[in-house]
Amino acid sequence: MKTIELANYGPVIPVIVIDNVEDAVPMAEALLEGGIRVLEVTLRSNCALQAIEAIAKNVPEAIVGAGTLRTKADATNAKIAGSQFAVSPGYSSNMGSICKEIDLPLLPGVSSGSEIMMANDDGYDFLKLFPAVAVGGVNLLKGFSGPFADVKFCPTGGVTIQNASDFLALPNVIVCGGTWLTPKEYVNQKNWAKITQLAKEASSIKF
Ligand code: 3PG
């Protein structure tokens, strides 16, 4: 699989933090019911790897990946847990090489022209813009479209249901991501119906 194919399944990839492993499967099922198949489970909690493993085993229709990869160990652990892809908040050639070595498709994060050039040098041309709104949002992506016309982006960081369509309308944006589909409040209440509703809204964004 190539990470660019993740955009074929819908306009939004939820960026998920799972604090209790028992929430992983019902949350994935709730998102699927709302039309979201691609799930990025971030390595920001102790049970993230177990959550990825649980989703990979029990929710076969989901395409589950690991987010927040920062080290080689993150990459190997993500692969062993069953991640089909990985996302990193920034880019380093080390991260690029380990992911290639272990055959883990990587969506690397960038926030500047120099980082885009480093990722491109290593063969990555579908990139996460992070933190999208803080570094310039829609205007920055418009700026990148000149010199980096062949590069496609997944903006995340400050993207919400309110501004997602502005990002998705840009020719160099093919999908976007964010945490707004799985708010802690609803997860703690195990309000899966609400998460399905947020997923439905996100998967049917018009742009
Ligand atoms: C990410 O890793 O992509 C961000 O944490 C998403 O940030 P958000 O909470 O602004 O969506």
Distance between the ends: 26 Å
Can you tell me the overall shape?
A: globular
Structural class: alpha/beta
Q: What small molecules does this complex bind?
A: 3-phosphoglyceric acid
Q: What is the H/E order?
A: EHEHEHEHEHEHHEHEHH
CATH class (first level) name: Alpha Beta
Query: Could you name the CATH homologous superfamily?
Result: Aldolase class I
Describe it.
There is one protein chain. The protein is an alpha/beta fold and 207 residues long. It has one domain (10-203): Aldolase class I (TIM Barrel, Alpha-Beta Barrel), CATH 3.20.20. Helices cover 40% and strands 16% of the residues. It is built from 10 helices and 8 strands. It has helices at 24-33, 48-58, 72-81, 93-101, 113-121, 132-135, 137-144, 164-168, 184-188, 192-203, and strands spanning 12-16, 38-42, 63-67, 86-88, 106-110, 126-129, 152-155, 176-178. It has a 4-stranded parallel β-sheet with strand order 3-2-1-8. The longest helix has 12 residues, at 192-203. It is globular. It starts with 11 loop residues before the first strand and ends with a helix. 3-phosphoglyceric acid (3PG) binds at residues 15, 67, 89, 130, 156-159, 177-180.
